[in-house]
TrEMBL record:
Keywords: Endonuclease, Hydrolase, Nuclease
Keyword match Hydrolase: yes
Gene3D superfamilies on file: 3.40.1350.10
Protein name: Predicted nuclease of restriction endonuclease-like (RecB) superfamily, DUF1016 family
Pfam family of the protein (one): YhcG_C
Domain YhcG N-terminal: 20-153
GO molecular function list: endonuclease activity; nucleic acid binding
InterPro entries assigned to the protein according to its UniProt record, in alphabetical order: PD-DEXK-like_domain, tRNA_endonuc-like_dom_sf, YhcG_C, YhcG_N
PANTHER family: NUCLEASE YHCG-RELATED, UNCHARACTERIZED PROTEIN YHCG-RELATED
Metal-binding found in the keyword field: no
Residue span(s) of domain YhcG PDDEXK nuclease: 178-332
Amino acid sequence: MQLFHMEILEQKYKQLVSGIGQLLATGRENAAQQINTILVYTYWEIGRYIVEYEQKGNEKAEYGSQLFDKLSKDLTTSYGKGFSRSNLLYMRKLYNNFPIRETLSHKLTWSHYFEILKSDSDLEISFYAKQSEKEKWSVRELKRQMKSMLFHRLALSTDKEGILRLANEGHEVQQAEDLLKDPFVLEFLNIPEQHLYLESELEEKLINNLQHFLLELGKGFAFIGRQYRMSIGGKHFRLDLLFYHRILKCFVLIDLKRGEIDHTDIGQMNLYLDYFKKEEASEGDNEPVGILLGAYKDHILVEYATSSITNKVLLAKYQLYLPDKKQLENALNKLLE
């Protein structure tokens, strides 16, 4: 009886230690977040001071173009690190791009904003700020998305009104078509462009880099399995990759094609979707979505091959290297015009 009593006391003590640990972790996290918010707000205020100083004509009259060199030197001498010329320029840019302080996100650090402000347009800056907050990207993840020209790839799949909405609200997944980017960029696989790889090799590398692949796919994807087996009419079929999308509440089937997607691939995916609707979907699930991910696609063939299909079969291109920035910018500018 006494031993049992001691065990209860020990268990309660462990709960006490665990509870205190959780409080400390939460407190430290909140403290770090508050420090980050205060730092961003402080840098915003410094940016405001600089802009107001310039607008009064003092910059031109007193220091000319050497303002930031002198300011960086004097502030560093008086207050220590953190006042490099580039940092000061980005503080000014922070204020100019977010003139209302309340529009700054308390979830983003100065390191986030420093990267976001490297964007070339106000549309991009607004998009990456909103998307970083929504997706809870780390600075490293943000860098990768910016390098892969995510905003441009999403923007080119919509119209002018859609581009403005994308910049103001971020990317919202509301229907199956919102899952696609044009193209998907898989540079993290490190497959040389001229390498003659097999579909199985592509699949293996995607699984080995699943965290990067999920980041490229976007928010809401949960990985279920690879080479998912289906028995249909006495024959066995295998799907390359199976996911569940928690926002759309449906299975997402992905088949990989090393070369061009053809009509037989579309027909096979349609078969898989019919199977999933009848055999795999649970109550409350929406109809499954199929994505054929290939290196090429013929738009005319796609139009004819999918015209009579009621299932949601989406075709998407992928590339193994980062897109050409100038090319995407020119295409986006034409669309905006």
